[in-house]
Specification:
The complex is a heterodimer of chains A (372) and B (101). By secondary structure, chain A is mainly β. Chain A is built from one helix and 30 strands. In chain A, strand 20 and strand 21 form a beta hairpin. Chain B has a five-stranded mixed beta sheet with strand order 2-1-5-3-4. Classes of the chains: A mainly beta (372), B alpha+beta (101).
Chain lengths: 372, 101
């Protein structure tokens, strides 16, 4: 019988949750790397036993772990994320220029077809690639070498590259998102990049609200069957692009708040999209203390609240940008983790929810692997 | 000339390196923070970058170095360590500083 494995990164370690295909009860293993911040874990689509994990701490810096047995055992691999060439500088919060400084890896994106190739998104923003299963890393310098890079400013969480998407039909097409620079697209496997932010508007944030770069994009997602259609949760605004990021339209009307962090797409329905509205940039918790996932079955514009099984009073958690995932079973499973340490699971595309686990450390990321 | 130096690591780095509370490293030449940490990193490559920056060799902000009751964290990396470290009477202690409230 098929099953699901959830890879959960938290402030104080990694957890691996497993269930059979019913997705009703979950076995919890962990914490792995207890006491360390695990910003992200992700399994290789080409080898589900191969998992990469970003392990970091303010004391000891950045490490990378790899498992070749589905998260049972781990080995430290290479963690030299040295910027290549001239380091350069970007604007700091006080308006001064500050040299690029590596802090951590926010996101890991394994290749779709090669378990030995994996991409890593860094703070301060840069893209790295390993083609030897994580042993060595090389910066893909075309991104940070973009002429706009000296104008990239950090969001509240730092100047972080937090989203990496590899084209499901054409791996030479890639997207990355950087807070607070925006979306960049490559059509040559990451050698060169161009901003893809036309149509984004950041009133009250940018002097020029329609600038090419400077937008605080929180997350982008696409469905593998429709690689030209992108969905975005921006700082404010839920957006959609039908032309691979050439232009964006606002599709968030009807949401109780269009601020939020995460966004994801149903595994089998390309127009079914999920977000978790958060009150505002100042109030990082759900509106009215009600934890609601909103689902659109129309690719945006029309949204319905999904509340069954979720706390509808006194709930003041946040859901971070990497903390939502879907499996590929039928019906589609949807998962998200909160800063309160709950991981909620729905085995019916969001109609009903239950906590797969409670009281973990604050959840930073959730990924789902569908097991044979 | 070489010295066998005792080094104590914080718990997180012991786990990472797969060692007990104290390790011994052989250090050639003058005994300094720089040479001790270099020998430590050579013996345990996983520790590269966890105590000091791998490119600049600058101590990470929340790491401190002690010998006995002396805080050597802000000493020059190439300053000689106390003789007691070379004799094995004292331990070079790497500490993860209290921080975070």
């Amino acid at each position: 019988m098929s099953g699901v494995r959830l890879l959960v990164g938290t402030r104080k370690g990694a957890f691996v949750l497993t269930s059979d295909g019913s997705r009703r009860s979950w076995q919890v293993e962990g914490p792995h790397f207890a006491g360390w911040e695990i910003y992200h874990l992700k399994g290789s689509p080409a080898d589900q036993q191969r998992i990469y994990a970003s392990q970091s701490s303010g004391w000891f810096g950045q490490l990378l772990q790899r498992s070749d047995d589905g998260g049972k055992t781990w080995a430290s691999v290479g963690h030299d994320f040295s910027y290549q060439g001239e380091v350069g500088a970007h604007p700091w919060y006080d308006g001064t220029m500050r040299p690029w400084e590596f802090t951590r890896i926010w996101h890991l994106e394994p290749s779709l077809d090669d378990p030995g190739t994996v991409y890593a998104g860094a703070q301060d923003a840069a893209l790295f690639r390993s083609s030897d299963s994580g042993q060595t890393w090389e910066e893909m310098v075309g991104l940070r070498g973009h002429p706009t890079a000296p104008a990239w400013q950090p969001g509240a969480g730092g100047l972080c590259l937090h989203t990496i998407i590899i084209g499901p039909d054409d791996p030479s097409r890639m997207f990355v998102a950087i807070s607070a620079a925006g979306v960049f697209r490559s059509v040559d496997a990451g050698e060169t990049w161009r901003p893809a932010n036309h149509g984004l508007s950041s009133e009250g944030v940018l002097p020029d609200p329609d600038a090419d770069v400077g937008h605080c994009v929180h997350r982008i997602a696409l469905h593998r069957s429709r690689p030209d259609v992108l969905f975005m949760q921006k700082h404010w605004d839920v957006m959609r692009s039908d032309d691979a990021g050439n232009s964006w339209q606002d599709v968030g009307e009807g949401l109780p708040s269009d601020f939020g962090f995460c966004i994801d797409v149903h595994a089998h329905e390309p127009d079914t999209v999920y977000v978790v509205p958060i009150t505002s940039d100042a109030l990082h918790y759900p509106p009215e203390g009600k934890l609601r996932v909103y689902r659109s079955r129309t690719g945006g514009h029309e949204w319905e609240p999904l509340t069954n099984g979720l706390p509808q009073q006194n709930c003041y958690v946040n859901v971070y940008r990497d903390a939502m995932a879907v499996d590929s079973l039928d019906p589609c499973g949807v998962y998200f983790g909160t800063t309160g340490g709950q991981v909620y699971a729905s085995a019916d595309a969001g109609d009903n929810w239950a906590a797969a686990v409670r009281d973990l450390p604050a959840v930073l990321s959730v990924e789902a692997q569908t097991l044979p | 000339m070489s010295s066998l130096v005792r080094v104590r690591l914080p718990a997180q780095l012991r786990t990472l390196a797969g060692v007990g509370p104290e390790v011994q490293v052989e250090v050639s030449g003058p005994l300094t923070q720089h040479s001790v940490l270099g020998a430590l990193e050579q013996n345990y490559p996983v520790l590269l970058g966890t105590i000091r920056d791998r490119n600049t060799a600058k101590r990470r902000p929340f790491i401190r170095f002690f010998v006995g009751e002396a805080d050597l964290s802000n000493e020059a990396p190439d300053a000689l360590l106390p003789d007691a470290v070379a004799r094995g009477a004292d331990v070079f202690v790497v500490v993860g500083a209290m921080a975070g409230g």
